[in-house]
Amino acid sequence: MYNPLVSYEENLKRGPAPEWNRGGFFPSIVFTGEPQFSIFDFPLYLPLGIPAGPLLSKAFVEVALKAGFCMPVYKTVRSRPWQSHPWPNVLRLAKIEDGGSGDTESGSELLQIRNPAGPEGRRASVQVLPLEAEFLADSEKSRTLSITNAFGVPSSSPQQWSADFCTLSADSFSGGYHSVLSFQGSRLPDGRWIDFLEDTAQTARLAAGCIRKAGGKILEMNVSCPNEAGAPIYSDTAALAETVRCAAEGLSDFPELKLIIKLGVVPRQNVLKTVEIIAKYAHGIASINTVSANIKNPRGENALGSGASHGGVCGFAIRDQALEMVRRLNEVRRSLGLHRREFALVGVGGCSGLDDFQKFLDAGADVVHAATGAMWNLQLAGEAAKFLNVDFATGANR
Known about the structure:
Elements: H1 8-14, E1 29-31, E2 37-39, E3 42-44, E4 48-50, H2 58-66, E5 71-77, E6 92-98, E7 100-101, E8 112-113, E9 124-129, H3 133-136, H4 139-143, E10 146-149, H5 158-165, E11 180-183, H6 193-214, E12 218-222, H7 237-250, E13 258-263, H8 271-281, E14 284-287, E15 291-296, E16 310-315, H9 319-335, E17 344-348, H10 354-363, E18 367-369, H11 372-375, H12 380-387, E19 392-394
Parallel strand pairs: 4-5, 4-18, 5-11, 9-15, 11-12, 12-13, 13-14, 14-17, 17-18
Antiparallel strand pairs: 1-19, 2-3, 6-9, 7-8, 10-16, 15-16
Helix pairs in contact: 5-6, 6-7, 7-8, 9-10
């Protein structure tokens, strides 16, 4: 539903593009039984959603809901307008040149990034090409698709995003569906740390007021974007603790809301401390966000529109890291005696088909989110419903 050949601003203005979905139309399904799954105590027809990245506005969220994704996450919002990095932002991985394995051009091996950025390893280098509709028409190629995701967490003003989000229907937050609003504090290049913390608390209050008005109960805070100045917050446990604490303070007048924290790949030695911090102030974890990599075109030049040497990678190339992260988080959750109803795990990163979906559930995820795997294949929810024997009827396509 996202057109990678035009800018973020054009996609936001035009809305979801049916020609960029499998088959050229948006599916519509209606679940006919009682919800059998849940996150916290909120029922879900299907433990499958779409994370914040691809859902740029209410229009995108509505398309996801109608396609059967029961936990869609509205694109991350800020306390101020924030520009997207220039086009191109979305390019497909053709080869991992350093820090991984595989070459999708020759079809020799499935692409997997082996070394994450940060404390556990150096940043991988990847070669990219434009993503074209013809490539997506090949079901096998699209199943193992990986892309760059280098937007820099753009946001409209609070007045704009709040007005847009609050026009979602009550059905978006009831029955077997639960839409989520994502937010984050804003770090300015020359800003003070205390300013960021204050902005985090203020943004949490703004997002909470918005979702309460709309009728929702779940917020997600992103502390894992690899496309901003400075190291991602989750990679420093002291910074993480301060940030999550400030968000919780911002939500002190909203005790009914649940807060999920979005992470990247946490070093093994920090997993226990990370979960302990988050469990003290919040109610769950979504993992993982994109993995940072050096992004080059076939000539060896920086390929992103921003001119940056690196950006986030998502899709199949990060699936194995995502699965391992969910396994580690679930082990720690059990060791700390945290019940699923009080502390949720959302598995995200490289879920492109039913086999991946089942692997995330087996790893301990309560709900699975698909980004790259759903952006151009919204039929994935219907396939997952059949896989889990969830009853539904097919509505009219539009």
